[in-house]
Write a structure and sequence with these properties.
With 294 residues, the chain is mainly α. The chain is globular and about 60 Å long. The protein has helices spanning 5-19, 53-59, 65-70, 85-97, 105-119, 122-126, 129-136, 154-175, 179-203, 214-222, 249-253, 280-284; strands at residues 28-30, 33-35, 47-49, 236-239, 290-293. It is built from twelve helices and five strands.
Length: 294
């Protein structure tokens, strides 16, 4: 039986979301068959008979298995919004010539934790200049490899919090009383951690640093997660129960490499403490059954 054109469009949309634009030809229909594109090495076409689009995506594979195994699971997703990373660049330039401007870093140290008490890590995904830099600039060049699991562990993140604050405290002790010197302490910490984040972005994923950033860690510790005690107006990602977890497009575009589909059908939404509320998963969902809501 020939599949309807509307179903063909759904299948095409899912395939683009899952496999990106590396595929030269996408889902050409012919009677009751679909041809799933030739691979990059010009091997023969792969012919599939389909009962539904989810089955096709699940069973899809090239004869060239090496290409598929090398293709990263996570990918860049362009979204609309203000390029806040210019604030970071301006801070680094101005702070170099006027060290006292380094105190501006206090905003990005206090605000994430304060906001997280009622909104979770919203600041990290929507107002952090460095996060914007990783999402909008580094994401274009990062290999998008899996973030190492150990950097998400409680003990590693606790170590990073203690290490950064100890180094900050020692330097501030020797600079105390000199406004320029104290401002330079803030500036150096922002510069060094940004460089570390850039290096990690080139090796792993754009938001690798954010997975164990000390301020992000503190924010995740105070973020609402008790379903019975969520603040009034708390917004989270809600996934329809219609989600079958077949395409996993939401996980592919998540900057923190989380799995929002785990909360499908949950009336409270996705309450992972490291969800930065950026909304990319709602944009990346090919059938639009995810939304950021109360």
């Amino acid at each position: 039986m020939k599949l309807k054109e509307s179903r063909f469009r759904s299948l095409r949309k899912i395939a683009v979301a899952v496999y990106g634009n590396d595929i030269s030809e996408l889902l050409q229909s012919h009677n009751d068959r679909f041809y799933l594109c030739k691979d990059i090495n010009n091997r023969s076409f792969v012919n599939y008979k389909i009962s539904n689009f989810a089955q096709t995506i699940n069973n899809y594979e090239y004869k060239n298995q090496n290409f598929m195994s090398a293709k990263p699971f996570h990918r860049h997703l362009e979204v609309k919004g203000l390029p806040l990373y210019w604030i970071l660049l301006a801070y680094l330039v101005i702070g170099y010539f006027y060290p006292v401007a380094g105190f501006a870093a206090l905003v990005c140290m206090i605000a994430p934790v304060a906001v997280s008490v009622r909104r979770g890590r919203w600041w990290c995904g929507n107002a952090c200049p460095r996060g914007s830099f990783y999402d909008r600039v580094m994401s274009r060049y990062s290999p998008h490899r899996p973030i190492p699991k150990f950097v998400r562990t409680f003990w590693f993140r606790l170590f990073m919090v203690m290490f950064i604050f100890t180094m900050f405290g020692v330097q501030m002790y020797f600079a105390w009383g000199d406004w320029n010197a104290m401002g330079m302490v803030f500036w150096k910490i922002i510069l060094i951690t940004t460089v570390v984040g850039i290096v990690l972005a080139f090796i792993y994923a754009p938001r690798t640093w954010c997975s164990f950033c000390p301020m992000g860690t503190l924010s995740s510790w105070v973020a609402p997660r008790d379903k019975s005690k969520l603040p009034d107006g708390y917004r989270s990602i809600h996934v329809s129960s219609r989600c079958q977890m077949k395409c996993m497009s939401c996980a592919r575009v998540c900057p923190m490499q989380l799995t929002p589909y785990d909360s499908r059908g949950d009336e409270h939404g996705y309450l992972h403490p490291d969800c930065i509320k950026c909304g990319k998963c709602t944009v990346g969902c090919p059938i639009k059954i995810m939304a950021m809501s109360k």
